[in-house]
Design brief:
Elements lengths: L2 H31 L3 H11 L5 H9 L4 E2 L4 E3 L2 H9 L3 E3 L8 H10 L19 H10 L4 H21 L1 H6 L3 E2 H6 L1 H11 L6 H11 L9 H27 L5 H7 L10 H32 L1 H9 L4 H11 L6 E5 L3 E3 L2 E3 L4 E4 L1 H4 L35 H18 L4 E2 L4 E2 L8 E3 L1 E3 L15
Parallel strand pairs: 2-8
Antiparallel strand pairs: 1-2, 3-5, 4-12, 5-8, 6-7, 9-12, 10-11
Length: 455
């Protein structure tokens, strides 16, 4: 790379950080100091490991659609669904289509590494392109396809727990995130995508390194680390896709490389890289959080774990209740494309709407006693943790299955599992989960042995 190109690249990166992180963080911090609820919410997620439940309640108390300084905000479950399904809003947050800031942002963005929030990612693309990308990837995540993966997922979970047998027998603490919660979903998605075993550790590192790209207000050093991870992931993915083209198999990436729509069009290189990268990263990043969050909730509510032992038919519902109470994704943003009205509030073109997924999941108008963790809750599946509308999570069925298999396997194999001191929340703020979860697996039993009879 020439000196001029290197300078241009550095200037573009500085602009992306300034426009996407430094300026918004400064503005939001100022609004928070003046009492703005949206600003206080964003700052609270940056400064605390706890979900800001009290702020959800304050926002909800102001009505279905709260007007904050820089965004419209809703914690109403019906309104969140309406916003996420509306054709009047588009995914993501933009600076607008015109003006000097928009032009600077567009120039800098063209030099950004491919990431979950850069076009042509499914997360920020709209029809007709979104429809075409999604149609090409949907079949591998259908309910029927996922059920076909259940037996293999159970094998993987059992194998990972076998690997912990010596630690369990000796009573040594293990980090469940590192040794189980992360490895289960990354192994499943890697097999779906044809990633060779020797590359799976790198993919896990890429996903962890890129996860903060969804956050707002990153410090400069963290921003550079994230972009470095995205750049490395992009380079690895290019090599992997080249291998797939040379020797296609029956995995999803091979299907994506050869897939054609009704007009005979396939995905361009950029579309293929973006779609494959998103499916690969999203296929395990949020499920790691689901498994960790679920283990903590079950540990904190032994009565609910006892109920699951008595009624194992409740496990699918329990996974939805975990997703409702401690969702892997806290919130999502949308940009209004034309003047519209939500819940009687006029929202102008260009405005940002923040949909509080975690707040909507505790809407008392929808969920009775919403702060209570209840694995038998009749409407647990009414949560919006997988979003809604055309951007509904492509891998929702896979995540539910992995959550059920993964949680059930570990608590049945180790009925006396005990979480011990040292747990740490992830530093990401949009994605919510645990980075470290130490546990003592005493009381383990051999794979295939009968579970103890309920008391």
């Amino acid at each position: 790379m020439s000196v001029a190109s290197r300078v241009e690249s550095e200037v573009a990166a500085a602009l992306r950080w300034g426009l996407g992180h430094a300026l918004p963080r400064t503005a939001i911090a100022g609004s928070a100091r003046r009492g703005d609820l949206h600003g206080r919410l964003i700052m609270a997620t940056s400064q605390s490991d706890e979900t800001p439940l009290a702020l959800f309640d304050e926002i909800r108390a102001d009505g279905p659609m709260h007007r904050a300084k820089f965004a419209y905000v809703t914690a109403s479950q019906p309104l969140v669904r309406e916003v996420l399904s509306s054709n009047d809003v588009h995914a993501g947050v933009s600076f607008g289509a015109t003006g000097p800031i928009a032009r600077l942002g567009a120039w800098a963005g063209r030099r950004a590494p491919t990431g979950p929030l850069t076009p042509p990612s499914l997360l920020v693309t709209e029809p007709p392109d979104h429809t075409r990308y999604r149609r090409l990837t949907t079949r591998v995540f259908s309910a029927r396809a996922v059920q076909g993966l259940r037996a293999r997922t159970e094998e993987i979970a059992a194998g990972l727990l076998d690997d912990l047998a010596a630690d369990a027998a000796a009573g040594r603490p293990v980090d469940l995130v590192e040794r189980y919660c992360a490895l289960l979903p990354v192994t499943v998605i890697a097999e779906i995508l044809g990633v060779p075993p020797e590359d799976r550790g790198r993919v896990l590192d890429f996903g962890s390194g890129a996860a903060p790209s969804l956050d707002l207000g990153l410090p400069w050093r963290r921003f550079r680390e994230v972009e470095a991870s995205l750049t490395a992931f992009e380079a690895w993915l290019d090599d992997h896709l080249a291998d797939v083209r040379r020797d296609p198999g029956d995995d999803l990436l091979s299907q994506l490389v050869t897939a054609r729509d009704d007009q005979g069009r396939g995905l361009t290189d950029a579309e293929l890289r973006s779609t494959a990268g998103l499916v690969l990263a999203a296929g395990f990043e949020t499920t790691v959080n689901l498994l960790g969050n679920g283990l903590v909730l079950l540990h904190e509510h032994p009565d609910q774990l006892a109920l699951l032992r008595e009624r194992p038919d409740l496990w699918p519902n329990a996974v939805d209740e975990v997703l409702r109470v401690d969702p892997p994704v806290l919130l999502t943003g949308r940009t209004v494309q034309r003047d519209t009205t939500f819940a009687g509030t006029r929202v102008p073109r260009g405005a940002v709407v923040t949909a509080l997924l975690a707040g909507a999941n505790r809407d008392p108008e929808v969920f009775t006693d919403p702060d209570r963790f209840d694995v038998a809750r009749e409407n647990a599946s009414d949560h919006v943790s997988f979003s809604s509308g055309r951007h509904y999570c492509l891998g929702a069925a896979l995540a539910r299955m992995e959550g059920e298999v993964g949680l059930r396997a570990v608590v049945e194999r180790h009925p006396d599992l005990e979480l011990v001191a040292g747990a740490e929340r992830r530093s990401t703020r949009i994605l919510r989960g645990w980075s470290v979860l130490p546990a003592r697996l005493s009381g383990g039993r051999a794979a295939g042995a009968a579970a103890p009879a309920p008391a």
